[in-house]
Every structure is written in C-alpha cells, then in structure tokens.
C-alpha cells in the first residue's frame, strides 16, 4: 500500500491503530513519537491526523498489512460488554478474540483496549484511570499488552472528587462523566485533550494521555528490538 510506504519514509517507528474512531488513542501514540495510521470501518472525517487514515475492516487490514508496521493497537467496539447491551440484548459481534488472533499473527508488539466490563474477555489486563495522569475524568479503561510487550501501570490514586451525574452540567470540583448524552462538549474536549473531536468521538475515546504513557514504553520496546536486530 502506497500510503504505508509514504508514512514509513517519514523515518519514525510506524504504529497501526485499529478501530481508531476520531483518534484519541492515535494522538497519544503520536505524542510518544510514532507515526500513526488509523483504520476504522466507518468514515472518520474528524480523524486527528488527516491523510493518515484508511477506511477498512480493521481485522482484515491487520491480517493483510500488519507485518509492515512496528507496533499496533486496537480498541474493538465495546457495545457487547456494555450495561446497555445486557439490558437491551442488542446484536453486537465479539471482536476481541478475532482481533487478538490477527495481532498475534503479525509478530508485532501490540495493545488491546476496552471497557471495564470486558475484563473476562481480556488476558491479564492493566487498568488506567484519568487520576493517574491529572485528568479530571476517571474513565477507567483496560489494556491487554501482547506480542512480547508488557508494562506495569502507575499507582492508582484514591478517587477524591465526585463524578458529575450523567447529563448534568459539571459543578466546580467535580470530575466529568463523558458518556452518553453528556453536557459540555467544549469542556470535554479540554478535559480529554481532544480539541478536534465532536460528542460522538469524545464519548468513544481514550484520553490521549493514556496512550502517550503506554506509547513511551512501547517505543522503548520497539527501539530495543531494532537495536538488538542491528547488533
């Protein structure tokens, strides 16, 4: 694929972000030093890195092109594991298993992210929280590292601020709850560190601070592999 070759020519390690949506995770990996290509089944006109996006089936894409990258991440849709799904019994596919299998076949170091309710489907996941990074939303998310990559999460601070009730304006001293039909898109952009995103993108995203932190460790892992290969 010509786009992959073009991005590779930029000279930085190349990271593949699957199920990227508007690019919250992509932004963090880029801030950690990677050139990032985002892939999503839906068009994403608000994707954070214009010109670095491919509309495609994420699992099929990584099967075909994954070997051309240095690392990968994936955020399979979480509706299957949500409380809403358990109530409404909507039909959503399980994509964690197929995504993991496809990532394992690449031989790359990788990370799968999902919501807390997906814990039974993830292998030894690590939890990250906004309070670990000074972000005024708790937003617990699970991360399963693989492909030889691993990390130990930061210490989890005690939750001392109250979380805003869903749909209500944020009061002074409260932490924002960026889910559903939340109130305050501009504030959410600031809190999440995603000024380019709209409401849909914000409520589906990981704060870039999470993946910047992971990405710094992933970068060290990737560069260590390259140094060993060059020796």
Quick overview of this protein structure:
With 231 residues, the chain is α/β, with parallel strands linked by helices.
| Named CATH topology | Rossmann fold
Number of helices: 8
Average of per-residue pLDDT values: 93
Total DSSP E strands: 7
**Within the largest sheet, what's the order of strands?**
3-2-1-4-5-7-6
Secondary structure: elements and pairs:
Elements: H1 2-8, E1 14-18, H2 24-31, E2 35-40, E3 53-55, H3 58-65, E4 71-74, H4 83-88, H5 96-106, E5 110-114, E6 126-128, E7 141-146, H6 185-192, H7 199-204, H8 208-230
Parallel strand pairs: 1-2, 1-4, 2-3, 4-5
Antiparallel strand pairs: 5-7, 6-7
Helix pairs in contact: 2-8, 3-5
Give an overview of the whole structure.
- The protein is 33% helix and 14% strand.
- By secondary structure, the chain is α/β, with parallel strands linked by helices.
- It has one domain: 3-Layer(aba) Sandwich (Rossmann fold).
- It is globular and about 50 Å long.
- The model has no long low-confidence stretch (mean pLDDT 93).
Kindly list the characteristics that best describe this protein:
Rossmann fold; single chain; 7-stranded mixed sheet; 231 residues
């Amino acid at each position: 694929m010509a786009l992959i070759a073009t991005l590779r020519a930029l000279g930085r390690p190349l990271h593949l972000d699957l199920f990227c949506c508007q690019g919250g995770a992509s932004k963090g990996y880029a801030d950690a030093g990677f050139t990032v290509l985002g892939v999503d089944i839906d068009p994403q006109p608000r994707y954070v890195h214009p010109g670095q996006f491919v509309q495609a089936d994420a699992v099929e894409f990584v099967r075909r092109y994954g070997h051309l990258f240095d690392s990968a991440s994936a955020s399979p849709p979480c509706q299957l594991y949500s409380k809403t799904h358990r109530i409404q019994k909507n039909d959503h596919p399980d994509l964690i298993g197929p995504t993991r299998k496809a990532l394992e076949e690449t031989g790359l170091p990788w990370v799968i992210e999902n919501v807390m309710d997906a814990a039974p489907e993830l292998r030894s996941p690590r939890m990250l929280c906004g309070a670990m990074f000074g972000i005024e939303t708790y937003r617990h998310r699970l991360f399963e590292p693989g492909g030889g990559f691993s990390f130990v999460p930061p210490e989890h601070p005690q939750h001392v601020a109250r979380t805003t009730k869903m749909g209500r304006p944020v009061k002074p001293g409260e932490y924002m709850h960026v889910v559903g039909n939340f109130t305050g898109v501009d504030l959410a952009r600031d809190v999440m560190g995603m000024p380019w995103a709209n409401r849909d993108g914000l409520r589906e995203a990981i704060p870039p601070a999470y993946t910047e932190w992971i990405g710094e460790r992933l970068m060290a892992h990737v560069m260590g592999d390259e140094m060993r290969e060059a020796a």
